[in-house]
Design brief:
about 325 residues; alpha/beta; 8-stranded parallel β-sheet
């Protein structure tokens, strides 16, 4: 990693623990971030899909960003999810994040109006870049057409990179199509491309990409980190199967709810199971079945045997 790039490796799309009022539970969030960074993650992406960002209000999102900025977390290893449907909200949240010193911001496309033209998307992102010009932004685009229904194409990326050199510097590809990820890597050398699935992390790195930003590494970070540590042969194949099996079990129940259910059990902390509507927590029987199955596959429970070291805010974040 240089001063102008993100580190390569495993990034967690961080799950957001919530209070009964569906606000971020700050101390649990910071402690989980500490656990992730101590157990294989090179970086963190808060307020993405897994973090239920679009189920939180703007005030809650900004408060969490400010808390991160006032904490001891290494900001150069954080990419904040700040994409909103409007230019104004995206600029507002992105400026707040960039002011904390994070490595960059991750932007969804404007997702309410379906089938927008490339020109329309270009104008949206151009307006965001212009609104953030004073912040010297590093912007990662977020390609997740299964949820946003608005794809990010190589054509759009090319236009944005030409119009705003050094601003649109990377992409998270959550399409689940490795060929698509490889196309971005090949088309734009030096573009900081992350796969959205840890099952593609090693292949992405081997092809010249940056690694993965993944939901399920909230649970499996130590195993994925070992897989990309340079091992090969039968051990690499064994870990590939383990990682794929873990992801399959979690994704079958919905990443957001399943991850939180397993964290609640492994941490012996029922508060972790809470999700924001429209996501619904797993019922107790299903949650325990999932946790036991993940433990059978990879002994995940053992990684949560000790409470994470607390990360304390270094300044007041009271609104």
């Amino acid at each position: 990693m240089t001063a102008n790039t993100a580190p390569k490796g495993v990034f967690a799309a961080v799950s957001t623990p919530l209070t009964k009022g569906f606000e971020p539970d700050i101390q649990r969030f910071l402690d989980h971030c500490s656990w992730l960074l101590s157990n294989g993650c090179i970086g963190l992406v808060p307020l993405g899909t897994t973090g239920e960002a679009n189920s939180l209000g703007m005030a809650e999102r900004q408060r969490l960003i400010e808390t991160i900025g006032a904490s001891e977390l290494p900001k150069d290893r954080l990419i904040a999810g700040t994409g909103c449907a409007s230019v104004a909200d995206t600029v507002h949240l992105s400026r707040a994040a960039l002011d904390t010193g994070v490595n960059g911001v991750l932007l969804l496309p404007p997702f309410y109006y379906k089938d927008p033209s490339e020109e329309g998307l270009f104008r949206h992102f151009a307006a965001v870049a212009e609104g953030l010009e004073a912040c010297a932004p590093r912007i990662f685009l977020y390609h997740f057409p299964q949820l946003s229904a608005v794809p990010i194409t190589t054509g759009l990326v090319g236009r944005l990179r030409s119009a705003f050199p050094g601003v649109f510097i990377g992409l998270k590809d959550s399409s689940g199509d490795m060929n698509n990820t490889l196309a971005f890597i090949k088309e734009f050398p030096g573009f900081e491309v992350f796969a959205g699935m840890e099952t593609f992390a090693a292949a992405t790195l081997d092809a010249g990409g940056w690694g993965c930003i993944s939901a399920t590494v909230n649970l499996s970070a130590p195993i994925v980190a070992r897989r990309i540590s340079g091992i090969s042969g039968k051990e690499a194949e064994r870990l590939d199967r383990t990682i794929a099996d873990l992801r399959s079990e979690i994704s079958a129940l919905g990443n957001v709810s399943a991850i939180k259910a397993a964290l609640a059990i492994y941490r012996n902390d029922p508060e972790w199971a809470r999700t924001a509507p429209p996501n619904v927590p797993l019922d107790n029987a299903c949650a325990r079945q999932l946790a036991n199955r993940l433990d059978e596959i990879a002994g995940l429970r053992s990684y949560f045997g000790h409470a994470p070291a607390s990360v304390q805010p270094i300044a007041s974040t009271a609104a």
